Amino acid sequence: MSGEDLGDALKGVLEGAIIVLFGTIVGRGAGLLTEVWVVRLFSQSEYGLFRLSILVTTLIASIATLGFVTAIPRQLGVERGEGTTNQVRQTIGAAFIVSSTASLFLAVLLYRFASQVAVMFDTPALAGLLRTLAVALPVVVLLDLIVAVSRGLGNSRPKLYFRTLVPKFGFLAGVAVVNVLEYPFETIVIAWVGSHVLAVAASVVYARTTFEHQPSWPSVTISRDLVRFSFPLLAVYIINSIGSWIDTFVVGYHGSATVVGLYSATVLLTRLIPMVLGSVSFMYVPIASKFHGRNDQETVSMIYTTMTKWITGLTLPIFLTFILFPGDILSAVFGPEFRNGATVMQLLAIGFMTHTLLGTNGQSLIMLGRRRFLALSQSASVSMNLALSFALVPLIGIEGAAIGSAVAYTITNVITSMYLYHVAGLHPFSWNYVIPVGITIAIFSGIGVLVSPTTPLSLGTLFLFAMAIGLAHASVYIVTRSVNEGELEMVRAVSSSLGLPVGPVVRILKWASKP
What we know:
21 helices, 84% helix
């Protein structure tokens, strides 16, 4: 492993992560504003109905992708590394043809059986929304595939443009129109569909004019091999989708649309915690797969450990703020009636942070081709979540669903990381990772225990508190001399690429990397 190779690899992950993270932050901001607007524009029960319809449609869309969203980036990364241009084009063509056929078939089924699905949730009004969303099902699948192909080709911009900015701001504009013209609640779903149609139209034009490799008609062998490789990942993708929302489905099964609205709003906000992890994971698989294909495990390990440190450092401010002041955050964002979701936020935050602390463990197993274990572990996670949620929700309400999710998420990620260490020796833990994180958590947990505000905190105050956590963690990181070789090489590579004068920064990092 050369320092240049490591620096270039980390720079590739970082550049892609920055683009995705920027889009995620902006998109989440627009999405959060839109969700708050919908919550305040309509009733809590109507908001719950809207979220439930989107969840059902998203789950069916995940089935229609046939696992290609996860498999394509890895497959294209390997094929590009081997220089097989014709195979790359056929793989792209196979993905589009097979998944488009599946999405059209499932869209017809969703439209036909919408009433039966609504009966499952004892919510007749859900049927009309699902029929409208059935029209958007092939659109959502095509959009996901274009983003997956771009990811495999090393281009993270389509995710920023067409999976985040266009649909989020398009939906925001649609909600504004609904508000100004005082349209009924059902038009919110039409606005959501319209925003995704606009996004897929723009993404098709972008793909046709800018993609390095255009799809070609695939051979039967390539199509079969792609489906065979993707099938276990389809199970993983579906299970992940189910696992992400199974608690909400159970809440909807046992409770009213109003309760679903409260729980969904809390989950929506708490999902900011894995935001950085998801952004880094987007480019991690294709780049790490190249080095894995060269049998350069030292570089893969350094990428994994370095990225995990940065992911955790950037996520800590969000996590600690959510843990210490959950009621104030929910009240400030959604209104005082949502303060009841405080305990749910704390429980979910712990579960999400566990994954962050362990890094891109699942993505690393995909890189290694360990698809079957990943499918089994995710199946166990969903089963555990489902069993705990069904057992606890009738007893203690929405907190039971949060406990089920947090416990299942934590146990699954610990087992996944243990298996990853067993098969590849990959883990993120070292003293220069554990010590700064431990010190930061201890300091601000103590502050949270000692300081008990008598009045609700504003969003501005909460933001300043989160910034203070970030600055404190960076300071602890430097003072404890916890910088590693990978971080130095990444800073050098990025500064060289951008032409930035970062000499003082490099000198500080060099000092902080000394034993």
